[in-house]
Structures are given as C-alpha cells and as structure tokens.
Write a structure and sequence with these properties.
Length: 213
C-alpha cells in the first residue's frame, strides 16, 4: 500500500505548508522523507497556532521557515484567524497544506479555498471512529484492527476521501496508550507516503472521490 515515490526533479517539488499545534512529530517524518532527492515535495513553511511549541524548534532544526498565528486574539472569529494563516501560505507560494496535529476545526471558507490541496491524518481506519479519542472508541467497539488514514479535507469533519491507510492489530491487553503508540509508528510512515501520492499527482481529489493515475 505504501509505495516508493517516483523520481522527481528537485525544481518541480511541491511547496508544502504544515499547520501544527504541538510537537510536530508527523511534520518531522515528512521533513525526513523530503531529504530524499526523488521525494516530490518539500516543507517550505510550518505555522503553529500556539506560540513556542516544540514543533517550531524541530522545524527550524531542518532549516524550515516558521511562523506563529496565535488564534487567541481572534476570539470566536475563526475565519479571521484562517485568513491570516491563508495570507502567510499564499505569500510563501504554498502549493499543498498538511495538517499535522493542528488542533483547530477549519471553517468551510478555508477548506473550500484549499480544496484538493489540503490533507489531514486521522488515527483510525476511516470512516470508523471519527472525532476524538479514537483509540478508546476502537477498544470499546471490540474491533480486531485499528490504524490511521490520510484523507483530503472536506467541510464535514473527518469525512474526506481517503488517500492511504495503514492497519495495526489490536492485541490482547492493549490499552489506549499502547494502541496509540503502535498507531503513531504507522502514522510516521503513512503521512510521507500519502503526501508523495498527492504531490506527484498520482492521487487527486475529483468530486467526492480520490482519482489515481
């Protein structure tokens, strides 16, 4: 399911903006993958909605430009906050936006503006277990496997078409912590692979489905 990216001219790499709210571990996994000369994308900008989070320092360690747009001064005006983020993305000529632990629900305005160029990772095998506490949901449901999904973002929460998924078994004695750790290992492999599919044009959003070439 996780394929090797096709060879890509460095000059044609898609410029990616990553939105974070914390430590940015998935951002780091993408930055590490992007070191490969044949990877079809580069992280050009990391934006956090919370000042001084660890993910900003980790991004700077890769030589990536960073910015903070603190959501708190905008109060309940979510669109005004997103317009400030959107301006930064556009000034930096961003092609694709990746949500990596970004703890804000986006408005339809932002989602529509970046339609087909906005992806997210969710810790479940969508359409199962949308929302929060997905590992708890999986354990309570008694399913035999769990995992993560990278999907295009649409206005409805966690409802966008899935680009790639990775599965893990649920083992006897698992709790939320052990299951979360095992899923996170797969997230760090899945997100760079899914981004490569989108950045290379092998996966794209067409209507309400993923088209593949």
């Amino acid at each position: 399911m996780i394929g090797k990216p096709a060879e890509t001219n460095t000059a044609s790499r898609k410029r990616v903006g990553v939105l974070i709210s914390g430590r940015g571990s998935n951002m780091v996994s993408i930055a590490e993958a992007a070191r490969a000369p044949d990877y079809p994308a580069e992280i050009a900008l990391v934006i956090s909605n919370i000042p001084d989070v660890a993910g900003l320092d980790r991004a700077r360690g890769f030589g990536i430009a960073t910015a903070t747009v603190d959501h708190r001064p905008f109060g309940k005006d979510r669109e005004a906050f997103e317009r400030a983020v959107d301006e930064l993305l556009r000034v930096n000529q961003i092609d694709l936006v990746v949500l990596a632990g970004f703890m804000r629900i986006l408005t339809p305005w932002f989602v529509k503006r970046w339609e087909g160029r906005l992806i997210n990772i969710h810790p479940s095998l969508l359409p199962l277990f949308k929302g929060t506490h997905t590992h708890r949901q999986a354990l309570e449901a008694g399913v035999s496997e769990h995992g993560c999904s990278v999907h295009f973002v649409v206005p409805e929460l966690d409802a966008g078409p899935v680009i790639l998924q990775a599965k893990v078994p649920i083992l006897p004695g698992d709790d939320e912590e052990t299951l979360s750790k095992r899923v996170l290992v797969e997230e760090h492999k899945l997100y760079p692979a899914a981004l490569a599919e989108v950045a290379s044009g092998r996966a794209s959003l067409t209507g309400d489905a993923v088209s593949r070439t």
